[in-house]
Structure of Cyclin-like f-box protein:
Amino acid sequence: MYTQILHLIPLVSLVAGMPQRTGKGKAQQQTAQQQAAKVPQGISQATDGSTIVDATAMINGLPIRYKIAAPAAQFMAASGVPGAAATSPNGTMGVNVLLHGDGGTSFFDFPNQAVQANTMGVVLLAPNANLFWGGGSGLQRTDGVAHAQAVNDFIQTTMPQMVAFNQSNVVFTGVSGGSLLMSGFFIPTQMANYPNSAVMLNCGGMPPQVPFNNANAVISQTTIHFQSTQSELQLLQGSIPQAVTAYEALGTQAGLSTDQINALQTVDNTPTGGHCEFDGQGFVSGVQVMASSYSNVVQPGGNGIVTGIGAPSTGQVKTGVVGNEQLTFVGGRKRDTMERRWVVNGDWVVTED
């Protein structure tokens, strides 16, 4: 594997000099990746006062833009971050790595930026033109294996150069297309590297798409929560229950009892609302609601309560998967592009189509 860190170099340089207009004064259409490159990288402050580093690393030939949010003293002294004091990458804080949905919304919003249960937040930007984790589109994630490998190699090789963390306490969050990469490719191929880990799969999921590495061991010690809404995208109304069924079957194959499976694998789609609208109001606010209660849902000792989740949910989302595989949906949009954004006057905004 090959990793090169490009410390705090704005991605805008990647598109500098590109023609912005074509004949008759019409703006040249840019890819989501090109538009994202206009958003500067650097150092900023998180909502809880932590330091956010936004930079890019070349991993296996792929440009992986990332954000790490942690107390300044946790960054490696050699990173150049003001206040950095760590001299060893072996820290005490856990890490919650989030993979955004198609188009990159949650990378820029960074909903897991606040430290939660001694766990720092990390978010990675998909390395392709559409900002789709796994490439392709819909349920066909043609670059899933390569992207899953890049996520793993970022954690294993780049993060220790930047920040001190507990490498035995790395957990994951998927959003929409990011959940497809996690469930379809990352868990099967890379989760063996993260024993006793946890994954929250928000508004997305599909069965493993590749051979499962060390399946029995992984399934026996990985906490997985599937979270959706009543009016999920129609494309995902089929794939999420299929994912629940497939992972439950892997638990059975691993010799787990019903109680053991239900303790590790949970599912919920009680709130009304559309794709990722877990609060019943909107995409961004809905994703934030789940991110803010991450530790309650999948980390040890969590009570399963999500504060601010939409009605008619009681707030308790930890329902065991056995007997609850076939979720009930109502309506839902048909489009297969699960998230789109573009830059308008310098602002990164959500589209509705």
